[in-house]
């Protein structure tokens, strides 16, 4: 059952007003992004708006998340541009429909939960790679370089940009730099006002009043046509279908990964719990219909979803209003878009590329050792220099081998000695008295990618838990970057709720990984105990401190 229908029972005027404000806000934020994504993908700007209207409405109407916003995203830019270059616009439409069919099948067959089997270093690696590729495609318009056609391959593109660096335009560079600074200023100091909107309108006004000699949507595309798009009947050419199977799988997998990651972010921010299979089904339906209106592939958009929640969204109605807001802009204000400078849109995409890169995760992965670094580095480099599909496939192969290695490494054969039995008493729970201000959870077995979602069951119970939560890791045989990240998120959520996490009994491998990751950022060093007996003693100290505070 889509979340929209679930929320109707308790829907009221107060909720609608909150959704209305959020929907209009995120609709205005989505406007420049939709155009920028379309242009960078080799499509006219209106294709991005059409996509945001149609898919944004359908994903909210049929989806499995309360606050997810769907539409064109930066993750698709490089993939879509490649498809348009090789197969043309009709090939893109056919590929999008095929990807939609795959997503619908994934949703109906319950494959939405498979996202958990993609390790975090792979996710970070290809988002880093895509972010770098997006930024590299914007350099030409940002500086106004005189290049007839920018090469599709990263190395050829960078070589061409360096060779033509002397052809930059002072006016276009000034528009791009000032737009970038305006966005950064509002992100830093005026967070409630969308900096992208201010930069877009400011740059457009400057170009209009000062009659600047810069490339605009009007000079490049002839403006944006007002009114509704014509409905396209996509022609099925079976020879092309065979050629597009690979790209369609790439679009579908990328859409599934990003939409479910975005839904997870939405859950953390809103306290909701999305249904991954319903969400994939909605994504599939949206992508089936988008080509009929000349739109791009769509997925969940993390930045717009976060904006939606911060603006006060309560239900999927906000996402539907966001789509209708864009429709009103398309019907009423489309002719005004002709003076939007390309340099300003490039500045917006630079910000998008930086935000989607999750660069802060890289030092944490590096700290975890050579194995996780190798997965991240292989995925990143292959994304940039080869192909996204190859990158994910190769990354998964390496991750699987490392998974086997970690499990094998923690398998031991040892003799039971008197010393072993004596030390074991400190870990046994049966003779310990657990105080009312504490509770104990245990993790049994490897805590690696594919199993970390088990901790979410405890996260949903946080409001009902006592002040001190003890995680007993005596039988956790191994942990990886995904597991460390999940434990860190759990510890931070407990701290935000006024509770504290204690770790006890971790074997050598998990303990070593936590030290490498500097887990003390999430949990005090004194809260990492050798055994459960020590943890119960520490719980008394922590409880006294929390009570005094």
Outline type: globular
Number of helices: 23
- Order of helices and strands, N to C? HHHEHHHHHHHHHEHHHHHHHEHEHEHEH
Provide the structure class: mainly alpha
Number of domains: 2
Q: Whole-number radius of gyration?
A: 25 Å
Distance between the termini: 44 Å
- Poorly predicted ranges (pLDDT <50, ≥5 residues)? none
Major β-sheet, in short? Answer: 4 strands, parallel
Share of residues in strands: under 5%
The helix content is 55-70%
Strand arrangement, largest sheet? 3-4-5-6
Q: Average pLDDT, to the nearest integer? A: 85
Count of DSSP strands? 6
Explain this structure:
The protein is mostly helical and 549 residues long. The protein folds into 2 domains: 354 residues, no CATH class; 130 residues, STAS domain (Transcription Regulator spoIIAA). It is built from 23 helices and 6 strands. The strands form 2 sheets. A 4-stranded parallel β-sheet has the order 3-4-5-6, sandwiched between helices. It has a two-stranded antiparallel sheet with strand order 1-2. Helix 22 links the parallel strand 5 and strand 6. The longest helix is centred in the N-terminal third of the chain and has 32 residues. It is globular and about 85 Å long. The relative contact order is 0.15.
Write a concise synopsis of the structure shown.
By secondary structure, this protein is mainly alpha-helical. Helices cover 62% and strands 4% of the residues. It folds into 2 domains: 3-356, no CATH class; 419-548, STAS domain (Transcription Regulator spoIIAA, 2-Layer Sandwich), CATH 3.30.750.24.
